[in-house]
Amino acid sequence: MNKKLVYVVVVLVAASGCSDLFEPAIRNNRDLSDIHDEPKYAAGLLYNGYTRLPTNGWSFSDMATDNAVSNDEANAYYTVATGQWASNNNPLNQWTNSLAAIQYLNVMLREVDMVKFSDDPVINQLFVERTKGEAYGLRALFMYHLLQAHGGDANGELLGVPIVLEPEDPSSDFNQPRATFEACMQQLYSDVETALGLLPHDYEDVSNVSAIPAKYTSLGIGISEYNRVFGQVMRLRLSGRILRAVRAQAALLAASPAFSHGNTTTWADAANYAAEVIDLNGGITGLAPNGVTWYDNRNEIDGLGSGVNPREILWRTNIEGTSSTLEAQHFPPTLYGAGLLNPTQNLVDAFPMANGYPITAEQAQYNDNTPYANRDPRLQQFIIVNGSTAGANNTAIYTAVDGGTNDGLNRVETSTRTGYYMRKLLRGDVNLNPTSVNAQRHIKPHIRYTEIYLIYAEAANEAWGPTATGGNNYSAYDVIKAIRQRAGIGLDNGDAYLESVKADQAAMRELIRNERRLELCFEGFRFWDLRRWKANLTETAKGDHIENGNHRIIDVEDRVYRDFMIYGPIPYSEILKFSALRQNNGW
Predict the structure, then answer these.
(1) Same domain, yes or no, for 451 and 419?
(2) Which residue among 514, 529, 544 closes a domain?
(3) Where in this chain does the record put each SusD-like N-terminal domain (predicted)?
(4) Which structural domain range is residue 483 located in?
(5) What are 424-455's pLDDT values in tens digits?
C-alpha cells in the first residue's frame, strides 16, 4: 500500500469543502498507521467513497438519447450521440472513479478495527460497526455503477468487472480478469447483506431504550451513546433503507433483457427488493403528493433542516447554499440562460392527453394545431413550450422562429434547436438579470422514492403480470394508477386508458416504460434504460418548427449508435495495460 494514499484522500476531501474534518491540519505526507489514533483522519478513507458518488451531480445524459439534444456541439453527450463514442472517448466511464473508490473502501475495511474512535471500548465498537457497514454498502453501490457502465457481452459471456476485495499495493497483480456478471451481482448482494447487519434503517435519535437494538442494550449502551453513533447527526450517510433501494436498482439492471442471460436475478427478485423499500415508505399511500415538482417545491426546500429529506426524496446530497448555476446553464436566452438542454419532440409526444390516452389514440382527441392543449400537466411542468411563462417574473417564452426574441428556434448559439427548453430541475424563482441576480437553494437527490415505485411496477409486471401482487400488497397496476393520479391524469374518466390495458402485459409494459421516461426525464436514466431494455437507440431526435402559428415537425439530430452499444466499453487504456481484461464485443 502506498502510504501517500491517505494524503491523496485528504487533498480530495479538502477540495470538496471538507477541510475542517482533519485535526491537526495535514501539512506533510502521513503514514497509514496515523489513522489508528486519529479517527477524523481515518474518516477520509470513507469520505472518499461519498465524494466519488456518480450521483453527486447531474449527468444530463438524456442529451445522448431520444429525450433531448444539446445546443453545444462541444458537449460530451453530443459527441456520444453523433457517433464519436469510443473506448478512448467515453464521458460515461465509471471504471477509474468507481474502482478507485473501492480501493479506498477496502483500505478502510482492513484498517478500521485498529482505529480508536472512542476511549470507551463499547462505543468504539459501535463506531467500528457503523464504519464497516458504510464501507460495505458503498462498495456495493460502486459495483452497481460499474456493472451499469461496463458490464456486457465478451465473446458470448456476460462479464462484469474484476472483483477486488482487498487493498492493492505496488506489489499486487493488477492484471486480473473480469469476473462474470453473475459473480459481481452475488458479491454486491453479499456486501449489501453484510452492511444491513451493521447499519440502522435510518439515522434518527431515539428517546427510549426500547428503540435501541437488543445487541447494543446487551452491551450496556444507553440513549445518549446510541444517538452519538446512530442518531440524526448522521443523516445523509448510507443507511439500511438506502441500501435496500440500491439493491432494488441493481436487481432491476440484472433482470433486464440486456443482462438477464447467465444471471440468476429474476424480475420477482427486483420487485420484492423494491417492495421492501415501498413498505418502509407506507406502501402506495406513501407516494409523495407533491413529488412531481420536488425540484421546485420552494417552501419545502427552503425550510429543510439539517439532513432532513422531503417526502419524495429517499437520499440526497448536502444542500450547499443558494446557487443559480443550473439556471444559468438551462434557462432560455431571454432569462439570461445558455439553454443547454433542449427536450425533443419525441419526448413531448410521449406525454399523454389529460384524459390519459396517448396522443395517437382516437380517444385522445389530439389536435396538431393546438398541440399543448389538454395535455398531461407534467408536460408544462417539465418542459417550456412555445408561449409558456418562466422565470422569476413569469416572462413569456416564444420558441417560434418568428417569435421575435432569441428564444426562437436556432436564433443564436444559446437558442433551442428543438423548439423546447427544460424546466424540470430548475427553480422558477431564480433571477439571472445582472442587475438583480437572485440565487436559491437546490436539492439534488441520489435516489427518489418515485424511482423505486417505478422499479416495482416494471419488475412486478414482468414477473406476475399487471394486476397480480406476488404476495405483496399492491400490483404494477396499483403503482402506475397512483403515479398517474398524482400527475393529474384521467381524473375525469377514471383513467380509461389504464383500465383498457390492465389485462395486457405487453401494453402495460409500454405504459410503465413511458411513465418511467416521463417521471425520470433529465435525471440521467433514459440513456441506461434504453440499453438495458435493448430498445432502439437510433431514433432521430426531432423538434417543432413554428412559423405563422403553424407547427412542422423537423429532424434535428441523427442518433448514431451500433447494436453492440447497448453495453459500454472497458477503457481502451486498461485493455492496453492488462492482457487478462476482455473487451465487450464491438469496442
Answers:
(1) no
(2) 529
(3) 59-206
(4) 277-319+447-529
(5) 999 999 999 999 999 999 999 999 999 999 99
Q: Are residues 391 and 302 in the same domain?
A: no
> What residues contact residue 166 under an 8 Å CB cut-off, 6+ apart?
106, 110
- Buried (b) or exposed (e) across 197-231, using 16+ Cβ within 10 A? ebbbeebbebeeeeebeeebeeeebeeebbbbbbb
Cβ-proximal residues to 499 (8 Å cutoff; 6+ apart), any chain? none
| CA terminus-to-terminus distance, the chain | 33
Name the grid cell of 167.
487493498
How many domains, in total, are found in the chain?
A: 2
d(C-alpha 126, C-alpha 117), whole Å? 9
Please give the Cα distance from 327 to 384 (Å, whole number).
13
Where does a domain end: 504, 529, 554? 529
Beta bridge partners of 541: 557
Instruction: Let me know: does 134 contact 192? Beta carbons within 8 Å.
Output: no
pLDDT at residue 23 above 50?
A: no
Cα(477)–Cα(466) distance, rounded to whole angstroms? Answer: 5
Arithmetic mean of pLDDT over the chain: 94
Contacts of 555 (CB under 8 A, 6+ apart): 540, 541, 542
If asked whether residues 406 and 514 sit together in one domain, one would say no
Torsion of CA 465, 466, 468, 474, to 10 degrees: 140
Q: Which of these, 329, 289, 292, 248, lies nearest to 58 by C-alpha position?
A: 329
Over pLDDT 90: what percentage of the chain?
A: 91
pLDDT of residue 30: 65
Identify which of 66, 493, 522, 465 has the alpha carbon closest to the alpha carbon of residue 329.
Answer: 522
Domain-embedded: residue 464: yes
pLDDT at 29 over 80: no
For residue 459, being part of any structural domain is answered with yes
**Is residue 37 in a domain?**
no
For residue 84, the one-letter residue type is Q
Looking at the fold, whether 315 and 338 belong to one and the same domain comes out as: no
- Residue 467 pLDDT class (50, 70, 90 cuts): very high
Mean pLDDT for the stretch of residues 530-552: 98
Shared-domain flag, residues 457 and 427 = no
Structure confidence by residue, pLDDT tens digits, 46-70: 999 999 999 999 999 999 999 999 9
Reported as a single tens digit per residue, the pLDDT across 372-386 is 999 999 999 999 999
**Cα distance between residue 30 and residue 570, in whole Å:** 34
Q: Indicate whether 472 and 334 sit together in one domain.
A: no
Q: Which residues, 6+ apart, have CB-to-CB distance to 131 below 8 Å? A: 43, 46, 108, 112, 115, 117
Q: Is 123 helix (H, G, I), strand (E, B) or coil?
A: helix
316-337 residue pLDDT tens: 999 989 999 999 999 999 999 9
* Global pTM value: 0.94
- Residue 384 lies inside a defined structural domain of this protein: yes
Same domain flag for 338 and 427: yes
